């Protein structure tokens, strides 16, 4: 081989080695979901899906950018850096306000750490042009647990003269939807869809869908997004109480911060298998800072029990935290 050929070959090898190589060596749980079908959706409806991404490696995962094959979908990187053992997400937003008909997009996720890789995600859906939600979703904001709430949206249709909403369905019992026709004429009709949150709704943030069922034969069901946060009237901090290793009968103290929506007093603090003591007071406040002592009285080994705090009065409420400890003779 000539000296010139050797130089060319060496340069080629250097360039090839420096070029990023797309790797597909991802565990199954890293991208557990790679495709989503929105189904049939209405114009201007809030239509989104979160793709979870798990980092199984010992170094941070970094999402460099995302390429999309169609403007009908806007990808949003919600977690640019995902730490080892943590889960992040990419939000795919279907642009129902500007596109119509059958649409789909491939989202190419470019990852440059801990190694270069490109992963393709897929979304599809059908945006019907004759049906509009206004507003595009039902948002409750923040409501207190134990209280009911009600919000709604308008459904506007232009097309068949006999078009109807025939049912509205919820996938959870504490979201109760209803509907009524408000106008009809000239090839156009309007309905009002109302969603009520019952008093027994669980605490926390919810993102659900109501199925609006029409008398269409091909695409009868259209999803309506419903979201909000149910806030507990009583909260405990910290929510996770970790005592580590303790001997049977060993006393340990934890300061608890208990907050309520209205002034209250504490009736009891209990934890199964533990002796719990705290200074009682008759002064009602919205915030109590409670120095509490815990003594393990039952069993050995790993412990995970609920700490329950109950307020006084006829309208008492209960909040819970989780206590963990390892009880053993040392």
Percent strand equals over 45%
Average pLDDT over all residues: 89
Overall number of strands: 23
Number of domains: 3
Number of helices: 1
**CATH 2nd-level architecture of the largest domain:** Sandwich
Q: Would you state the CATH class of the largest domain?
A: Mainly Beta
Biggest sheet record? 8 strands, mixed
- Structural class of the helices, strands and pairings? mainly beta
Given as residue ranges, the uncertain stretches (5+ residues, pLDDT < 50) are: 4-24
Q: Give the CA-CA distance, first to last residue.
A: 74 Å
- The fourth-level CATH homologous superfamily of the largest domain is Immunoglobulins
* Helix-strand pattern: HEEEEEEEEEEEEEEEEEEEEEEE
Structural account:
With 330 residues, this protein is mostly beta strands. The protein has one helix and 23 strands. The chain has one helix at residues 3-18, and strands at 35-43, 47-54, 61-68, 73-77, 81-82, 87-94, 101-113, 117-134, 138-144, 149-158, 165-170, 175-185, 188-197, 204-214, 221-231, 234-237, 240-246, 252-264, 266-271, 274-277, 285-296, 301-311, 318-327. Strands 1, 3, 5, 7, 8, 10, 12 and 13 form an eight-stranded mixed beta sheet that branches. The protein has a four-stranded mixed beta sheet with strand order 9-15-14-11, with no helix packed on it. Strand 7 and strand 8 (117-134) form a beta hairpin. The protein is flat. The relative contact order is 0.12. The model is unreliable at 4-24 (pLDDT under 50).
